[in-house]
Design a protein that fits this description.
Number of strands: 0
Number of helices: 2
Shape: rod-shaped
Radius of gyration: 59 Å
Distance between the termini: 152 Å
């Protein structure tokens, strides 16, 4: 940019020098006509060079603005990605916590299955003992009833015989 500015200034200075030469050579008409034509050609070239330098400067300004725009967009995208990464990290922590909770639930389910199995075994044992006790009780009641009936018969037989 600085180089182009110097080039523009140089071209402007050159243009002014050519104009001074042109003005000083008017007194010599024959040389002046030749010199005038040369100066016109040089002036046109200088103007063309000046315009080219201005176009280059405009292009460089545009490239700079474009680069600044790209940098701003890249920074915006970087911030967006950082936020997204933070959300992913938070999701990961949340999922890790849920996984630990699930592991604890499964451990508790396994413990409850074992306890349930043990309780089922105890229930089966108690049911068997209860059924066995019922059988003994029924058997005992029948025996008591039979004893009672036998005694009653004996008593009736003893009364009949007396």
């Amino acid at each position: 940019k600085h180089r182009l500015s110097e080039e523009v200034e140089g071209l402007q200075s050159k243009q002014e020098d050519l104009k001074r030469c042109y003005d000083s050579s008017i007194s010599r008409e024959h040389d002046a006509e030749i010199r005038s034509k040369e100066l016109r050609v040089s002036l046109v070239a200088s103007r063309r060079d000046l315009e080219t330098a201005r176009v280059k400067l405009d292009v460089e300004r545009g490239e700079k603005e474009s680069a600044e725009q790209h940098a701003a967009e890249a920074e915006e995208q970087r911030c967006h990605l950082i936020k997204k990464l933070d959300r992913c990290k938070e999701d990961k922590r949340s999922l890790q916590q849920k996984l630990e909770e699930l592991h604890e639930v499964r451990k508790n389910q396994q413990r409850l299955k074992i306890e349930n199995s043990n309780l089922q075994e105890q229930l089966d044992t108690l049911t068997t003992e209860l059924n066995s006790a019922k059988e003994r009780a029924v058997s005992g009641e029948l025996q008591s009833h039979n004893d009672f009936v036998h005694k009653e018969r004996q008593d009736l037989a003893d009364r009949l015989s007396t």
